UniProtKB/TrEMBL annotation, chains A, B:
CDD domains: HTH_XRE. InterPro entries: Cro/C1-type_HTH (IPR001387), Lambda_DNA-bd_dom_sf (IPR010982), TransReg_Diox_bact_type (IPR050807). Residues 12-66 form the HTH cro/C1-type domain. This is Helix-turn-helix transcriptional regulator. Keywords: DNA-binding, Transcription, Transcription regulation. It comes from Halomonas colorata.
Length: 73, 73
């Protein structure tokens, strides 16, 4: 489990909660399996850039806003 | 082949050339197969966020600087 995946997952979880999505509602809106979202948020998955954009679209934010700066890792 | 992968690949190629790397030298520095780099640059691969950070580290730039804005896709 990498620091990058962990931080990215935490950022996604925070943004999801801020937007008032449960994991279930978010999974439904994103068309992604609920257990997969859980694994992403726990940093257990290395998601693709494509998936990052899909998640950011549902969260109505820029994909880059979810990514940690290189020098913080 | 998605618009995202195509644009990301083009950005990586431009940055690689600006930094004076041949594809061979870049592949060596990044520890990535040369044919894989070619496929990334042509937008034929959906790379992971992890791989994006590795590529950006070799190119000495922020990973986010290689990503297109959501609304340009």
């Amino acid at each position: 489990m990498s620091e990058l995946a962990t931080t990215l997952g935490r950022n996604i979880r925070e943004k999801r909660k801020k937007n008032g999505f449960s994991q279930d509602a978010f999974a439904l809106a994103a068309g992604i399996d609920r257990s997969y979202i859980g694994r992403v948020e726990r940093g257990e998955v290395n998601i693709t850039v494509e998936k990052l954009y899909e998640i950011a679209a549902v969260l109505q934010c820029e994909p880059t806003s979810l990514l940690p700066a290189q020098n913080t890792l």
